[in-house]
């Protein structure tokens, strides 16, 4: 994911946090509301990108067949993958489309992050149990002090971290199958040229679009070497529009 995208998303989250905090500076539910608002904005934005936005680009290759052109598409998608952690994954699974002259790359949907939520529950639970057992060694008085400190610490941790993570996990389970990106490519052959029509849908597809199309640019040698290598008449230039 590009630095500009990360920066813009971070700024948006900070702005939402600020608005909610000003509206309700002392309430814990204000924090929970912040996570809900951020999740709602993010999901809505990604749903719009997935289903309301389709960007089409065409690439023309000369001197090659449909099979070679589609194999080149698969390789360009593999090379351009984002390999993000979590979801969107930025990783695509390429398969033959309904027609033999097409391929469809669907974003891989990883398993949910429920294990992370469970880890966040287990770790503070173990720490709270250690605190409780340490104080319990000092008799009844220590038993109650340990229980009080462990309960307070565990409660604060759950409210600040586990509840927001649980909300994010539920949102992920509900929406990630709907948000996975798709890149569909159809090849058409005429004379000695093959035209590839790309359709990009979804956030991850749009993020890797330029890198995929760049794979079909005609290579250009540096000026000092350009005059030393003649360009053959049967070269296969690529034109992206």
Summarize the structure.
The chain is α+β, with helices and mostly antiparallel strands and 241 residues long. The protein is built from seven helices and six strands, in the order ααβαββααββααβ.
Descriptive terms for the model:
membrane, alpha+beta, six-stranded antiparallel beta sheet
Written account of the structure:
By secondary structure, the chain is of the alpha+beta class. Strand 4 and strand 5 (193-201) form a beta hairpin. Helix 1 (3-23) runs antiparallel to helix 2 (28-51) and helix 4 packs antiparallel against helix 5 (139-179). It has helices at residues 3-23, 28-51, 66-80, 114-136, 139-179, 203-214, 223-226, and strands spanning 55-62, 92-96, 102-107, 182-190, 193-201, 238-240. Strands 2-3-4-5-1-6 form a six-stranded antiparallel sheet. Keywords: Membrane, Transmembrane, Transmembrane helix. The chain crosses the membrane at residues 28-48, 116-135, 141-171.
């Amino acid at each position: 994911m590009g630095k500009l995208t990360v920066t813009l998303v971070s700024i948006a989250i900070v702005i939402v946090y600020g608005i909610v905090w000003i509206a309700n500076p002392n309430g814990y539910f204000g924090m929970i509301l912040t996570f809900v608002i951020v999740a709602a904005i993010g999901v809505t934005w990604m749903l719009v990108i997935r289903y309301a936005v389709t960007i089409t680009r065409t690439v023309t290759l000369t001197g090659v067949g449909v099979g070679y052109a589609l194999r080149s598409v698969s390789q360009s998608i593999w090379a351009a993958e984002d390999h993000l952690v979590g979801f969107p994954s930025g990783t695509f699974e390429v398969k033959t489309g309904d027609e033999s002259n097409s391929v469809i790359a669907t974003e891989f949907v990883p398993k949910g992050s429920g294990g992370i939520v469970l880890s966040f529950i287990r770790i503070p639970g173990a720490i709270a149990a250690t605190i409780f057992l340490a104080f319990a060694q000092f008799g009844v008085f220590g038993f109650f002090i340990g229980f009080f400190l462990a309960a307070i610490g565990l409660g604060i941790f759950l409210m600040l971290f586990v509840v927001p993570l649980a909300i994010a996990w539920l949102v992920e389970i509900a929406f990630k199958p709907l948000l996975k990106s798709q890149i569909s490519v159809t090849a058409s052959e005429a004379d000695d040229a093959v035209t590839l029509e790309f359709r990009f849908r979804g956030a991850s597809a749009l993020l890797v679009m330029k890198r995929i199309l760049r794979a079909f640019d005609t290579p250009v040698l540096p000026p000092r070497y350009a005059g030393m290598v003649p360009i053959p008449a049967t070269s296969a230039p690529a034109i992206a529009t």
